[in-house]
Amino acid sequence: MGRERRYVEQIRVLDRLGLIRLWEWIQAGLPIEGWATGKAFEYLILRAFELEQAEVIWPYSVGRSEQIDGALFVDGMSCLIEAKEHTSPIGLGPIARLRARLDQRPPGVIGLLFSVNGFTRAAIDTLQRLPTQNVLLWNGLDLTQALMSGMRAGLQAKWRKAVERASFDHRLTK
C-alpha cells in the first residue's frame, strides 16, 4: 500500500475532536508520528471538509511537475486546495503558484490557500490588486474557527466577503 493511501486511512479514523487535537499538535510545531512534514496539515483540511459531506479529492499529481494538495467540491463550488506549514507567514510565491494552476482550470474554480502561520502584509496587499480574484486565504485562526464552527460555513463566509467586499483574507469569527 502506498504512503498516500496510508495517509487517507490514518486521517479517516479521526472525527472532529481528533482533527482539533491534531491541529493543536501542528500549531505547536510538534512532529506527527507516521506523517511526512506538512502532510498531516494537508489531510486534516480535506478530512474536515469530508466530515461535512463535501466531495474530496485527496492529494494527487498532474503530469510530472504539478502536485495538488487536494480538490474539493461543495455547495456548488469547485476548489483546489494548497496547504503551507511554514514557521513564518508566507509571501506572494505560493499565492502566485496557486493562481497559475487556477489559470489552467475552468473559470469557476477557486483556490483555497491554507497557511499555519498566515501571510505577509505585502502578499495580502498584492493579492488585493490583482485583476483576477480567485484565491481565498485561510490563516491558522481561520482554520481553528472553521474546525469549531464548520468548514463549509467558513468557506461560505469567506466567499461571501470576497463577493461583497473584495476581501480575500476575511477573518472568520464566532
Provide the fold topology.
Blueprint: H1 3-12, H2 16-27, H3 39-51, E1 55-57, E2 60-62, E3 66-68, E4 70-74, E5 77-84, H4 92-102, E6 109-115, H5 121-129, E7 135-138, H6 140-149, H7 151-165
Parallel strand pairs: 5-6, 6-7
Antiparallel strand pairs: 1-4, 2-3, 4-5
Notable traits:
Restriction Endonuclease; alpha/beta; two-stranded antiparallel ribbon; globular; 174 residues; 5-stranded mixed β-sheet
Walk me through what this model shows:
- The chain is an alpha/beta fold and 174 residues long.
- The chain has a single domain (3-165), classed as Restriction Endonuclease (3-Layer(aba) Sandwich), CATH 3.40.91.70.
- The chain is built from 7 helices and 7 strands, in the order αααβββββαβαβαα.
- It has helices at 3-12, 16-27, 39-51, 92-102, 121-129, 140-149, 151-165, and strands at 55-57, 60-62, 66-68, 70-74, 77-84, 109-115, 135-138.
- A 5-stranded mixed β-sheet has the order 1-4-5-6-7, sandwiched between helices. A two-stranded antiparallel sheet has the order 2-3.
- A hairpin with a 3-residue loop joins β2 (60-62) and β3.
- α2 runs antiparallel to α6 (140-149).
- The model has no long low-confidence stretch (mean pLDDT 94).
Number of domains: 1
Report on the biggest sheet: 5 strands, mixed
* Protein structure class: alpha/beta
- Tertiary shape: globular
What spatial order of strands do you see in the largest sheet? 1-4-5-6-7
CATH topology term: Restriction Endonuclease
N to C succession of SSEs = HHHEEEEEHEHEHH
Average of the residue pLDDT scores: 94
